[in-house]
Amino acid sequence: MIFVVGIGPGSPEHMTQRALDALGEADVVVGYSYYIELLGEVLRGKEVLSTGMTREVERCEKAVELALSGKKVAVVSTGDPGVYGMAGLVIELLGKMDPEGAVELEIVPGVSAVGSAASILGAPLMTDFAVISLSDLLTPWELIEKRLKAAAEGDFIVALYNPRSKKRVTHLARACEILSAHRPPHTPVGIVKNALREGQEVILATLSAVPFEKVDMMSVVIIGNSTTKNLGGRMVTPRGYGID
Fold first, then answer.
1. What is the pTM of this model?
2. Residue 64 domain flag
3. Contacts for 183-187: CB closer than 8 Å, 24+ residues apart
4. pLDDT score of 126 more than 80
5. Residue 20: exposed, middle, or buried by beta-carbon count in 10 A (0-12, 13-18, 19+)?
6. Do 96 and 182 belong to one domain?
7. If you compute the radius of gyration of the chain from its CA atoms, what whole number of angstroms results?
8. What is the per-residue pLDDT for 87?
9. Spatial contact of 222 and 130, defined as CB atoms under 8 Å apart
């Protein structure tokens, strides 16, 4: 049995009851070391296997091996495991390592990072939006730019994951440049770092004045569309109820 568990921001109060129950049922919990640290007391008494960044395949392979041996295994993923999380990788590995389908699988959804950030900013995602990762580790930058241009032309609200790192210092600026070709300089932008976690930071800016140096890999950047407003320090995209 494998549970792929979305732990949301990582604290128990923002996890679903099913996520907590699945972790309780598991014999072994597998995850990225930082995510394991976030869970803290939730995993007291549990056998835990953790690995560092970029070792996702290794730890998910181990999870499948343990499940094939008869153990109940929980693979943890921050946010929702089906949104840039571990669900897809686990399913791919099961297809390779368990073609007969002997291992039962349950994907437990969680609060996504974009949902967490939006709740802190106000209500910026009230109409159609696109979520785009600026990490070109697994996706070519040319394809990321193509997606950014399509979202800009379609007037989508755009949420950016993995917006800036020590090695990728120009990607966010380029993304804003692409979006600026289709929306005005005063378009509201919200930046949330460590959403619903210790060290949370919130910055409200505009598309022409994004403080790039304050953004990192723990940040989600939400860029409004042509109707998004800043009302009393909150971002909101009107749904169209016509209350003006």
1. 0.94
2. yes
3. 183/152, 183/155, 183/207, 183/224, 183/225, 183/226, 184/226, 187/223, 187/224, 187/225, 187/226, 187/228
4. yes
5. middle
6. no
7. 19
8. 98
9. no
Contact 207, 190 (CB under 8 A): no
Query: Counting beta carbons within 10 angstroms of the beta carbon of residue 137, is it exposed (0 to 12), middle (13 to 18) or buried (19 or more)?
Result: exposed
Please give the order of strands across the beta sheet that includes 219-223. Answer: 129-133, 157-161, 219-223, 188-193, 201-206
- 200-224 confidence digits (pLDDT tens): 999 999 999 999 999 999 999 999 9
Distance, CA of 235 to CA of 30 (rounded, Å): 37
Kindly compute the dihedral angle of the four CA atoms of residues 194, 76, 57, 215, in this order, to the nearest 10 degrees. -10
Query: What domain range includes position 87?
Result: 2-111
Question: Which of 181, 168, 165 lies closest to 223, judged by CA?
Answer: 181
Final residue belonging to a domain, choices 82, 111, 140: 111
Distance CA 59, CA 81 (A): 15
Residue 227 covered by a domain: yes
Q: Do residues 122 and 216 both lie within one domain?
A: yes
Please give the single-letter amino acid code of residue 152: A
In this structure, the answer to whether residues 126 and 225 fall within a common structural domain is yes
Same domain, 119 and 218: yes
> Of 80, 111, 142, which closes a domain?
111
| Position 184 confidence tier, pLDDT thresholds 50, 70, 90 | very high
Instruction: Please indicate, yes or no, whether residues 81 and 166 belong to a single structural domain of this protein.
Output: no
The CATH number given to whatever domain includes residue 102 is 3.40.1010.10
Residue 145 sits in the same domain as residue 66? no
- Burial of 240 from C-beta contacts in 10 A (0-12 / 13-18 / 19+): exposed
With a pLDDT cut of 70, the percent of the chain lying above it is: 100
Q: Which residue has the tokens 């070792």?
A: 55
Domains held by the chain: number: 2
